[in-house]
Amino acid sequence: MNLENKDVDGILKYADPVIAAILNKSISGKDISAREALVLFDAKEIDFQLVGKVADFLRKKKVGDIVTYVVNRNINFTNVCIKQCGFCAFSRDFREEEGYTLPIEEITRRAKEAYTYGATEVCVQAGLPPDMDANLYENICREIKIEVPDIHIHGFSPEEILYGATRSNISTKEYLSRLRDAGVDTIPGTAAEILNQKLRDKISPGRITVKEWTDVIKTAHKMGIRSTSTMMFGHLETNEHRVNHLDTIREIQKETGGFTEFVPLNFVYSEAPMYKYKLHEGIKQGANSNDALLVHAISRIMLNNVIDNIQMSWVKEGPRFSQVLLNWGANDFGGTLINESISTAAGSGYGQLLRPKEIRHLIRGVGRIPAERDTTYKKIKRFDSEPIEKNALDGEMDVKKFGSYFDLIKIKKYQYQRTK
To answer: Of 86, 105, 239, 336, most Cβ neighbours within 10 A?
Structure first.
């Protein structure tokens, strides 16, 4: 049976009656419950295909056939961190030789360089060094804005914001206000992992709690600071954890409207401490392809009424499988990144840079229309055909010029030196 040539309403008669009823409910524009979403995770064979087909139908109805991407650069300015999360291979203790920290002038140089290559955004995130100056994040933003006033700063996870507020001995709201005044435009909705406290206590003990994460996000949204939203899957979580996480994201969005997108992040396992050292029984090697397809599709189905954009992570899934995900509910290809450190450190085999022309080629490969966007999904340029004038990143420069995480941790002048 060729599902590609069938109308959604017509093919649902082939589904299990319970699954058909749930999918029909979503097609009619109603929210499905977490319990109903849980049923979809058990879909097999024809039902499995139908979940994807309905997610694709909803995607097309909501955002059409345009697939967006952003030209951006990641700046992970230090890997020194007081936390020891079981999934993180990026961070180092301050005593380790591979700990590094970039001075502010190097951070701003990277932002300026990214801008010259056509980037509209820098994503600034890092570890939590034990002796961090309480004003560091603000100082970074001010210096970036002095050098590159037009670049969008997508900076600092809820974990970092809470840490900065704690070190400054002020409220989260006041600290967010200071960051905004210093130049932060939006914040990443990372550090969410799975929003279940019992599981968080297992995979990242001592990290920001579910309540704290939610409070930071809601506070930011109510101040007009928008954020992404994320979920890390494919480790120890159950399908019930997943759907409850999605339900929490949905409820926050109904209250604040501040999420720009939702990004499922497949667990990169090979160098992650909790997998490498077998810290937990039953830990998985990330989600397999069918499971990843369901996660993206069910994310679209659950969130479609409140969040327009579902982004896949080409760094986690690889460029080719990311193409497949565009037919399972996703409509955004993410960013060019230029420097990718966190997934790379964990063992991801998919490079640090995906050029704009490569992204456009991949999007066209599944019959969709590429468009460059800004951080908040305002479309900058639609590419109905490949342009004669290329983005500067599409040139022939050696990608190695940008440096990699494994190069960075060996550079002596950036080696972390504790000040206290």
So the answer is: 336
- pLDDT category, 89, cuts 50, 70, 90? confident
- Domain positions in the chain are 3-60, 66-409
Residue appearing with tokens 């009823």: 21
Residue 208, helix vs strand vs coil:
coil
Q: For 148-195, write each residue's pLDDT tens digit.
A: 999 999 999 999 999 999 999 999 999 999 999 999 999 999 999 999
Rounded Cα gap, residues 78 and 92, in angstroms: 9
Q: Give residues with Cβ within 8 angstroms of 277, minimum separation 6.
A: none
> Top-level CATH class of 66-409?
alpha beta
In the chain, the amino acid numbered 339 is: N
Query: What is the DSSP secondary structure assignment for residue 141, as one 8-state letter?
Result: H
Q: Give the span between the Cα atoms of 337 and 354, in whole angstroms.
A: 7
**pTM greater than 0.85 (yes/no):** yes
| Helix intervals (H) in 133-224 | 136-147, 158-168, 172-182, 197-203, 210-222
The tokens describing 175, both together, are 């600290």
Distance CA(292)–CA(312), nearest Å, equals 10
Residue 101, classed as helix, strand or coil, is strand
Number of Cβ within 10 Å of residue 390's Cβ equals 13
- How many residues can be counted in the chain? 420
Residue pair 172/223 in contact by the 8 Å Cβ criterion: no
In sequence order, the β-bridge partners of residue 216 are none
Q: Provide the 8-state DSSP code for 14.
A: G
Estimate the crossing angle of helix 172-182 against helix 158-168, to 10 degrees: 100
Taking only the tens place, the pLDDT of each residue in 258-308 is: 999 999 999 999 889 999 888 999 999 999 999 999 999 999 999 999 999
The total of other beta-carbon atoms located within 10 Å of residue 357's CB is 17
Beta strand ranges found along 219-341 (DSSP E): 227-233, 259-266, 332-335
Angle CA(402)–CA(404)–CA(406) in degrees, nearest 5? 155
CA-to-CA distance for 153 and 343, rounded, in angstroms?
21
| Helix axis angle, 17-27 to 45-63, nearest 10° | 0
